[in-house]
Design brief:
The protein is an all-alpha fold. It has a domain of about 80 residues. The longest helix is centred in the first third of the chain and has 24 residues.
């Protein structure tokens, strides 16, 4: 599927497309680093979709031709928030494909016995 940019699109529209691609990259990096469950992927993608739709839904005449520096920083923060949303939605559960560690192999440290200390007799 190719993305075509028409002559009527603005630089802001292209910036939103780049932000969407970066959001996918952030989700991929998070998934590779710590693993994301399917719920985490869905939450991250829904966040990106809703954010993009909210930003695009305004009248094109009322939007800026290009995002300023502050808007670009805000868009970058929103992209990072999408990654955090995916992590929170994934929770503490390991991803479905990750092998679980066998708890019978885990050596548990037993509490050590207190050692007896000998008292030295004072030499007088």
């Amino acid at each position: 599927m190719a993305i075509s940019i028409s002559a009527t699109s603005t630089v802001f529209d292209r910036e939103l497309a780049v932000a969407g691609a970066v959001q996918l990259a952030v989700l991929g990096i998070v998934s590779a680093a710590v693993g994301l469950s399917p719920l985490g992927w869905v939450a991250g993608l829904v966040f990106a979709l809703v954010t993009g739709l909210l930003l695009v839904s305004h009248d094109a005449a009322g939007r800026a031709r290009a995002a300023g520096a502050a808007n670009q920083v805000t868009l970058a923060r929103a992209t990072l928030v999408g990654g955090v949303t995916a992590l929170v939605a994934a929770g503490d559960r390991p991803p479905a494909a990750a092998p679980r560690e066998d708890s019978s192999r885990v050596r548990r440290l037993a509490p050590s016995r207190p050692t007896r200390t000998r008292r030295r007799k004072a030499i007088s």
